[in-house]
Design goal:
Elements (H helix, E strand, L loop, with lengths): L6 H4 L39 E9 L10 H10 L1 E9 L3 H11 L5 E3 L5 H9 L7 H7 L1 H9 L1 H7 L9 E3 L11 E4 H6 L8 H13 L12 E3 L6 H5 L12 H6 L2 E3 L5 E3 L4 H15 L12 H9 L3 E4 L16 E4 L19 E7 L6 H9 L4 H9 L6 E3 L5 E3 L1 H4 L7 H5 L17 H7 L2 H10 L15 H27 L7 H11 L1 H17 L1
Parallel strand pairs: 1-2, 1-3, 6-9
Antiparallel strand pairs: 3-11, 4-11, 5-9, 5-10, 7-8, 12-13
Helix pairs in contact: 12-20, 20-22
């Protein structure tokens, strides 16, 4: 019988972690004994200051990590200085892979989203050290967090029994979802209401396009529907409308598998449901209702359009802040759009946590000190520092014990939006992925009230089935890797071509045949095998 996770508790844990196998060269109990300079408890962590090198993924909203408050302030407490080398989001994966392959490692990897393949591959070679014993001895806060999410702890263990990385829990259940945001002021200007069905959505977008919805006297500058992230939200926001994506947004975006009516894994981009979704989206695009730059624009370009009041709707992100501070207040939520069968179901949810946020390399001469350094951020005080920055400046504590960000963050005098303004002090706020363990209380300080109101609205109609973190044997992974590369790349390239009209849907059968020829059936079977193996346990 299928195991399930409470939607209320976890907003549907829905990610697949792909595992490359490898031999074991070190035991999870192997550690390097710290010297006399080390304090095993209390602060500072070391008596005489030491320097560690870290490599991390720096969000575009962040201040230079060598100067940012959340790190420089902790240096005073820990007596550990970090020399940061960072890379931006754009091209980060390539930079990370080159660094891993080079052997010229920093002392630790931070906010690097190391896949389980990275962990077992480089861990088995000894490039990443096993953390089991370090956690047992010095992970005081981590062990408390594991009590709250035991499944996460079990998922951290690789097939050889070792733990090579630490996780991030940077989202609450409301924050792990992506919602449908629509410009309420535009709706009033064109005398219509929030759409609830696909037909109503098309009618609203058409009104935005033709009726000078932003009221600036130019009826031709409105962009009815825009998005970022290569147009991904076009699909995620309407998967449920076409009977797809019931394993949540993470697996829908990355692996394109879900569960069919018979309870079996399927590759949904070769189904009739997906063809109908493409046909509908292509129709909207041909009518000028979808931003022609949605597949190519970056975060800055998207936000700039929002600041100019050019966007009527976007269905991406857990709150409307990415549209820019100038017009954010005008956006309200729309429900999941009922499909032709009249059913409205919400499945645009993801994990509240992720693995691979932090790892220690074999070049590190201070592994115990490093574990104590990072463990601080898994405690309440450290999480507040990395998430909210400086008390009295970026946030304040309210009489009821909760926290709220200040006007410096929410209404920045320099016109910065919330991620940008907080990014001058702390890095957990924007982009996620930092090795920390935030609480709902910290999320409530960050997210506007409308996010929690929206989650309360969609919570009763969450239709996501819980999928665990699946693992693959060595042989399965070796077989799956080329299939992933070929099939996923082709699906993503084709969906853009279908929507924009560069590839006609008259070529649908050829498209399906090519995926099958690439090994689509075997791809599905490998996921089914991993799923069945989990279900038996």
């Amino acid at each position: 019988m299928m195991k399930r996770v409470s939607m209320a508790a976890a907003a549907a844990l829905v990610a697949v972690q792909l595992v490359m196998a490898g031999g074991t060269r070190q035991s999870g109990n192997t550690t390097t004994a710290p010297g006399a300079n080390f304090n095993p408890t209390g602060y500072p962590i070391v008596k005489e200051k030491i320097t560690l090198t870290g490599f991390g993924n720096q969000n575009v909203t962040h201040k230079n990590w060598n100067e940012i408050y959340c790190f420089t302030e902790y240096e005073k407490k820990s007596n550990i200085h970090i020399e940061w080398t960072t890379a931006p989001n754009q091209g980060f994966q390539e930079r990370k892979n080159v660094l891993l392959a080079s052997g010229d490692y920093p002392d630790f990897f931070y906010r690097c989203a190391l896949t389980t393949a990275d962990q077992i591959n480089y861990g088995s070679r000894g490039a990443l050290i096993a953390l089991n014993n370090l956690i047992d001895q010095y992970g005081v806060n981590l062990k408390e967090r594991f009590k709250e999410l035991p499944d996460m702890y079990n998922s951290m263990k690789m097939p050889d029994g070792n733990i090579y990385s630490l996780p991030t829990k940077s989202l609450s259940s409301p924050g792990a979802a992506s919602y449908n945001w629509i410009n309420e002021r535009w709706l009033k200007n064109v005398n219509t209401k929030v759409p609830a069905t696909l037909d109503e959505l098309e009618a609203v977008l058409t009104a935005f396009k033709t009726l000078d919805a932003n009221g600036n006297g130019n009826p031709n500058d409105e962009i009815p529907w825009s998005c970022r992230r290569a147009g991904i939200s076009l699909f995620l926001s309407t998967n449920s409308s076409f009977g797809m994506g019931n394993l949540g947004n993470s697996i829908s975006m990355d692996y394109f598998v879900d569960i069919d009516s018979a309870g079996k894994i399927r590759l949904f981009p070769i189904t009739e449901n997906y063809r109908q979704q493409l046909q509908w989206l292509a129709g909207l695009y041909a009518k000028g209702l979808i931003d022609p730059e949605c597949f190519t624009q970056d975060f800055a370009a998207f936000t700039a359009k929002g600041e100019q009041d050019l966007i009527g709707a976007f269905f991406d992100n857990n709150n409307p802040e990415i549209i820019g501070s100038k017009n954010q207040e005008y956006f309200t939520y729309a429900p999941p759009f009922a499909g032709r069968d009249g059913k409205a179901e919400f499945n645009n949810v993801g994990l509240t946590y992720a693995l691979g946020a932090f790892a220690i390399s074999n070049r590190n001469k201070y592994p115990a000190e490093t574990m104590r350094w990072i463990d601080y951020y898994y405690g309440e005080e450290g999480a507040r520092l990395i998430w909210l920055g400086e008390e009295g400046v970026t946030y304040v504590k309210k009489p009821d014990g909760t926290y709220t960000v200040t006007d410096l963050i929410r209404k920045n005098p320099n016109g910065l939006n919330m991620p940008q303004s907080m990014g001058q002090y702390a890095i957990g706020f924007a982009g996620g992925g930092a090795p920390t363990f935030t609480t709902d209380m910290l999320e409530e300080a960050r997210l506007p009230p409308i996010v929690f109101k929206t989650y309360d609205f969609i919570k009763p109609i969450i239709g996501v089935k819980a999928l665990p973190l699946l693992s693959f044997t060595t042989a399965e992974q070796d077989e799956l890797n080329p299939l992933l590369s070929d099939i996923i790349t082709y699906i993503k390239e084709s969906q853009v071509q279908f929507v924009t009209g560069r590839l006609s849907l008259s070529q649908w059968e050829n498209y399906v045949k090519r995926i099958n020829d690439m090994g689509g059936a075997r791809y599905t079977a490998l996921f089914q095998t991993a799923y069945d193996r989990w279900a038996r346990n």
